[in-house]
Design brief:
The structure is a single chain. By secondary structure, this protein is mainly α. The protein has a domain at 10-126 and 155-233 and 299-313. Helix content is 65%, strand content 4%. The protein is built from eleven helices and three strands. The chain has a three-stranded mixed beta sheet with strand order 1-2-3. Helix 2 crosses helix 8 (193-208) and helix 5 packs parallel to helix 11.
Length: 314
């Protein structure tokens, strides 16, 4: 699993960026701002907590990965994320500085296990040409899961949103007032862990195979910020499959890097057709199924009247 372009400082960069994100998240959890500053700080949060995790994962992906390293980061992240989740559910009050800190540390653990799992899975891809069918299939499958109202992802988000929210990355909101004068990280939107994990898979592979990592990171950040704007805008698109822009960005930016033989081209086209069929069926089901009102989300703190409804971006 060792990279051809090892960077011993990759995990240091990852840790520093995650620490910075944690501090900013704590700041959003404890501050109350004037009403006039809410929208600018919401925009700033959207940029920071989309671009920041992408660049943290990109930095960590440049590490000279070995299986032991990947498993260690994965298990450490799972332990932190799960431990913080249990603490929030059983031991800590709904509001308070301790709650804000534990919420923020849990998000740091989430980034860590997504990076570690991404490095583990990336080690299974021995040829860079395998990234093509993987990207096509994941994009189509993600559209099927998100758009199809009977698929497990859509079912969880609509009927048991607290389950999704407990494992998702959150984009914190800025608020002008708080319930019970308490402190808590109020979520503005959610990003599914699969998006971070798959991003890590791609970045580890891009570094290992010497592909266009810097350009991919730049354009992926732009694409995902634009995607989040679509989710938050009053367009009725409260849930979109983020693996579509992730896969598309990797494919477009690195298109010249792949050299497929005839058999590989046929296999890739076949997978692309399967992905298209899955996506088309998901869209068909969305257009032909009556909407279902989302279930209650008791785990989401009440926000001020100016705060938008938290939106998932699986």
């Amino acid at each position: 699993m060792t990279s051809k372009h090892p960077n011993r400082s990759g995990l240091v960069g990852f840790a520093l960026l995650v620490a910075a994100l944690t501090l900013v998240r704590i700041g959003y959890g404890v501050m109350t701002v004037p009403q006039s500053a809410v929208v600018p700080l919401q925009i700033l949060s959207a940029i920071i907590f989309i671009v920041g995790p992408i660049y943290a994962i990109k930095a960590g992906s440049s590490h000279a990965w070995k299986p032991a390293h990947a498993w260690a980061i994965f298990l450490l992240g799972v332990g932190i994320h799960a431990g913080c989740g249990v603490s929030l559910a059983r031991f800590l009050p709904e509001f308070g500085l301790g709650t804000v800190i534990v919420q923020s540390l849990g998000q740091a653990g989430l980034l860590a296990w997504c990076l570690g799992l991404g490095a583990i899975v990336a080690g299974l891809l021995k040829d860079k040409n395998l990234m093509l069918p993987v990207a096509f299939f994941l994009a189509g499958f993600d559209m099927f899961l998100v758009f199809n109202p009977t698929a497990i992802t859509a079912q969880i988000v609509t009927s048991r949103p607290q389950v999704f929210q407990s494992v998702a990355a959150t984009i914190p909101n800025a608020v002008s007032e708080r319930v019970s004068e308490g402190m808590s990280v109020v979520p503005m939107a959610f990003v599914g862990p699969a998006d971070l994990f798959i991003s890590a898979v791609f970045f580890v592979c891009l570094y290992r195979f010497g592909m266009r990592t810097k350009e991919t990171g730049r354009w992926l950040a732009v694409a995902l910020v634009g995607y989040l704007i679509l989710v938050l805008a009053p367009l009725g698109l409260n849930m979109l499959p983020a693996l579509v822009p992730i896969g598309a960005t990797v494919l477009i930016v690195n298109w010249r890097e792949w050299k497929l033989n005839a058999e590989e081209k046929q296999a890739t086209i076949g997978v692309a057709c399967i992905a298209l069929a899955l996506a088309s069926y998901g869209l068909y089901r969305r257009l032909n199924t009556p909407p279902v009102a989302p279930g209650p989300s008791s785990d989401v703190p009440v926000t001020s009247e100016s705060a938008p409804t938290p939106s998932p971006v699986p």
